[in-house]
Design goal:
single chain, 4-stranded antiparallel sheet, elongated, 2 domains, 9 helices, 232 residues, alpha/beta, Rossmann fold, Arc Repressor Mutant, subunit A
C-alpha cells in the first residue's frame, strides 16, 4: 500500500517514512502545500498523513480540495493545534483521524494500520491469496499451496505482487505500478519494472506456482495461470 506524507519538517517526515517502510508501506514525502496537493490529487495513495501548518497552502485547504475532487485516500491530520474547534474542523472537512504534535511514532503507525485495515474488505488481513499463491503481508513470504514451497520476496517485488494480487481481476497499467512502487516523482529508467517482473516470475517458478504475471501489450500486467504451467 502507498502513503503520502505532507509535512514541512523533513526530519520528522523522513522518520515517519523510515518506520512505515518497516511495515512494508511505500511512502512519498511532500514538504509544502502546493507539491503535496498536486501529489495527493493523483489519487494513487491509500492514505495521506497531512500536516495543518504548511508553507504555500495549509492542510485544511488541502483537505477541502481533496474532498471536492472526490479523492478517496484515508487522511490523518497532524497538527500542534489541539483545541476542540480544530479537531471538529478536521472531522467536519472529512478527515479520518487527527493526531496532535508531539506524538509517539508508534501511535501514528498504529492509527495508520487501523485505518488501512478498515479500508480492506476483510478485518485484520495478513495474507493475500489467489489461485495457488499466498503472500504474507507481515513477513513478505511468498508460498505455493500446491507444493508447500516458499520464498521471501524483496521490497519492490513485494509491492508489485501485493498490488497485482489486490487487483487480480483486472489489468494493472504500467504507470500505476511505477507510481505505487517508485513514486510519482521518480524517474527510474523504463526497464526497472520489467526487471522486477522477471525476478518475480523466477521466484514463482522456484516455488512451483501455476501463477504467472501476464503482460498485456499496450496496457500493463495481470496475474493469471498459464496453459504451459498447467500442462507441466
Amino acid at each position: 500500500m502507498k502513503i503520502l506524507i505532507i509535512e514541512d519538517e523533513y526530519n520528522l517526515a523522513d522518520a515517519i517514512k523510515t518506520r512505515l517502510n518497516q511495515e512494508n508501506y511505500s511512502v512519498d514525502i511532500s514538504t509544502d502545500g502546493i507539491d503535496g496537493l498536486d501529489n495527493a490529487l493523483t489519487n494513487i495513495y491509500d492514505l495521506i498523513v497531512l500536516d495543518v501548518m504548511l508553507p504555500k497552502i495549509d492542510g485544511f485547504t488541502i483537505l477541502s480540495k481533496l474532498k471536492e475532487n472526490h479523492i478517496n485516500s484515508k487522511i490523518i491530520m497532524l497538527t500542534a493545534r489541539s483545541s476542540l474547534e480544530d479537531k471538529l474542523e478536521c472531522f467536519s472537512d472529512g478527515a479520518d483521524d487527527y493526531i496532535t504534535k508531539p506524538f509517539h511514532l508508534e501511535e501514528l503507525v498504529a492509527r495508520i494500520n487501523s485505518k488501512l485495515r478498515k479500508n480492506d474488505n476483510t478485518n485484520d488481513i495478513t495474507i493475500l491469496e489467489i489461485f495457488d499463491l499466498k503472500l504474507d503481508l507481515k513477513t513478505a513470504e511468498l508460498s505455493c499451496k500446491k507444493t508447500n514451497e516458499s520464498i521471501v520476496v524483496m521490497r519492490k517485488e513485494f509491492l508489485i505482487l501485493e498490488y497485482l494480487m489486490r487487483n487480480a481481476n483486472q489489468i494493472v497499467a504500467k504507470d500505476i505500478l511505477y507510481d505505487k512502487v517508485w513514486g510519482i516523482d521518480n524517474y527510474s529508467i523504463s526497464n526497472n519494472l520489467e526487471a522486477y517482473i522477471s525476478f518475480i516470475r523466477k521466484k514463482l517458478n522456484v516455488i512451483g506456482s501455476l501463477v504467472d504475471i501476464k503482460a498485456v501489450r499496450g496496457f500493463g500486467y495481470k496475474l493469471g495461470v498459464t496453459n504451459e504451467k498447467i500442462k507441466n
